[in-house]
Amino acid sequence: MRKISLWLFIFTFTVFAARGQDAATQQQIDKLSGQIQDILVTQETQTKRLDALEKQISDMGDKLNQPAAANDSASADDLKKLAAQVQEIDKKRQVDNEQILKTIEKLGKVSGGSAGHKSTSNVATTASTEASTPNAGVPQNGYEYPVAAGDTVAAIAKAYRAKGVKVTSAQILAANPGLDATKLYVGQKIFIPDPNAK
């Protein structure tokens, strides 16, 4: 009987120990399962945040790649077209000035006499000086220069400085509004201001 009760005691102890061990194992499994669930939730949240950031980056890239017209700014081509139009208008203005001067000279000749011719000549000279001085803020004294082949604004300024006229490229450009220094053409008349002349 002692053997049976000993075996019964061992069996009971083993069952309780196994159940206790199963309970501890189950607790560890439940704990690990909870941690895995937390990791999955965190991963899902981070995936959503990454998707939102990717969308923002994509939207920014699209804004940067929009054409210049959509950004309300002028492109280099637009500026070149505008400069060409301004030069065309300036050419027409010069042709009109020359026609006006010729008409004034004809009227002076028709009105008769050398005195009338002389006064007409003075008017023509004054008109020529005013026509060649496009900007009121620029000195009224200076020279009209017809552009020759190979001329640049810097070369013209240097040549006038060699003659004693202390003028800079910036002053020439300021005295000739609308002048595009990169598009000078032969025969184009530009005004060379003489800051020292009185």
Distance between the amino and carboxyl termini: 142 Å
Overall mean pLDDT: 77
CATH topology of the largest domain: Membrane-bound Lytic Murein Transglycosylase D, Chain A
Secondary-structure class? mainly alpha
Oligomeric composition of the shown chains: single chain
Label the overall shape. rod-shaped
H-E string = HHHEHHE
CATH class term of the largest domain = Alpha Beta
Main sheet summary: 2 strands, antiparallel
Separate helix tally: 5
Radius of gyration: 46 Å
- Classify the beta-strand content into a percent band: 5-15%
Percent helix range: 55-70%
Say how many strands there are: 2
Write the CATH homologous superfamily of the largest domain.
Answer: LysM domain
CATH arch. level architecture of the largest domain: Roll
Question: What can you see in these coordinates?
Answer:
The protein is mainly α and 198 residues long. The chain folds into two domains: 1-32; 76-193, LysM domain (Membrane-bound Lytic Murein Transglycosylase D, Chain A). Helix content is 68%, strand content 5%. It has five helices and two strands. The protein has helices spanning 2-64, 76-110, 113-131, 153-162, 169-175, and strands at 142-146, 189-193. A two-stranded antiparallel sheet has the order 1-2. Helix 2 runs antiparallel to helix 3. Residues 113-139 have low confidence and may be disordered.
